[in-house]
Amino acid sequence: MQATPLGDDAFRAIVEGNPDSVLLVDARGLIVYANSQTERIFRIPAADLLGRRIEVLIPERLRPGHVVHREVYQEHPETRAMGSRLDLVGRRADGSELPIEVSLSPLRLANGQTLTMAVARDITQRKRADAALRRSEERHRLLAEHVRDIIYRYRLRPEPGFDYVSPAVAPLTGYTPEDFYAEPGLIARLVHPDDASILSAGLSEHAPEQYVLRVNNRVGDTRWFEQHVTRILDADGHVVALEGIARDITDRRRAEEERSQLLAEIETRLERERIAGDLHDDIIQSIYAVGLGLHADRADDGADKRTALDRAIEGLSTVISALRTYMQQLNGDFDAIAVNETLAHRLRSLTNDPDPLEWTVEVPTDCTIEPALDRHLYLLAKELVSNVRRHAHATHAGIELRRMGTGLVLTVWDDGSGFDRQSVPAHSYGLRSVDHRVGMLGGTIEVDSQPGRGTRIIVHVPLEPAEALARTASD
Fold first, then answer.
1. By CB distance 3.0 to 4.6 Å, which of 22, 114, 362, 363 could disulfide with 15?
2. Can you list the positions of beta strands (E) in 123-274?
3. Would you say 345 and 363 are in contact if contact means Cβ atoms under 8 Å apart?
4. In which order are the strands placed within the sheet that holds 407-414?
5. Is pLDDT above 70 for 330?
């Protein structure tokens, strides 16, 4: 047996009789003593450990951290009880790992040297027992949860009827198990009339493994039950009984119905907002343009009134045609919708109305994009141009459309009065409509404007619109 630093027979007897691994470690982290139980736990001869660092008993991935903890402990050695640190891991000679608990205590020798006594306990069996206990507790928890479900056995032969119904049936239906035993046809009387055929199939030898059934309880409320069924066979392979679990899913079904209703209401509201935005950005702006032309002709004493009226009639006819086309689109008549002009031509046409403004238009003539995105970009530009005419009091303005990476950039600017966006009323529909449409396209909008210094609005949109745009285009 190896010599102990203490040279004390009593100490040797105590540590060798200890069922745990007992190690003495010096200030450098070197093992100076290991009892015989160390070999049993770590499968390394105790003599082979002498002079080696304590980290040899720790998995390699944990060694750097252990060195730091050991050095910190050496600076302030104190007694640490077993189990004060959780989830410690040891390493055997073959590289396998084991869960351990460790207690530490400083040991001061007569010569002034201080050693650390580490007692390591193999807790593999306890960990296994704890895991088994947790599994058992989980099974009991699940069983406790299923107590709220109705467990039953329904025989098909020789006479149909219930062999067993769990007590949970009483609070859910208002009828006791004995009621179902005494009256085999009770369930047929309670089932919702519309689900009679489902019950008939569910209590047959061809019963599905899972189905949903509505049952009217004793006070007249209708409850939804989700059935999980197992067919029981005899030695000849005939179905003789059904064993099942009926779970009350009424609250879930009601929540699903409320959710469906809420989604329908949201879709209706979004559809109304979309229609309002389309009318505002297209039809109303076209009518406003006609009105601007009439105001300009009335103010011009030299204008030919007949020509002005003809121009107004032509503009209103265009509005009526656009409105008719939009109504056809809402009714699903997509064949009636055709775009005969390019986006570049239509954007340039936005600046053709009588207007004291000087417009600069920079739009590529070969700009061909997906039809729904084409339409939305046109309506965005139309709303922004209309805002310039109505509010900017500018002398010079411009429209620019260009490609940038995988997207398009639409810019509308003016040298007019500008505005503070924070001061725009919440009920103002113009910018709110623009924001909504840009968001629907999956894009972003930048507004650079200050009072007295003009306005520049930059819209970035991807060339491949978001899924929401595809849905909008198909509406």
1. 22
2. 150-155, 161-165, 210-216, 222-233, 239-248
3. no
4. 358-362, 396-404, 407-414, 455-462, 444-449
5. no
Write the pLDDT tens digit of every residue in 189-222: 999 999 999 999 999 999 999 999 999 999 989 9
Mention every residue, 6+ apart, whose C-beta is less than 8 A from residue 76.
none
Query: In which domain, by residue range, is 21 found?
Result: 9-127
Say yes or no: 89 and 157 in one domain. no
Are 439 and 388 a contacting pair, CB within 8 Å? no
Contact, 27 vs 73, CB < 8 A? no
Global model pTM greater than 0.90? no
Pull the structure tokens for residue 159. Answer: 């006479």
> CB burial class (10 A; 0-12, 13-18, 19+) of residue 329?
middle
Q: Which residues pair with 361 in a beta bridge?
A: 399
Q: Are 356 and 383 in contact (CB under 8 A)?
A: no
Determine the Cα angle at 261 with ends 257 and 266, to 5°.
145
Considering the domain architecture, whether residues 206 and 317 belong to the same structural domain is answered as no
Alpha carbons 307 and 300: distance in angstroms, whole number: 13
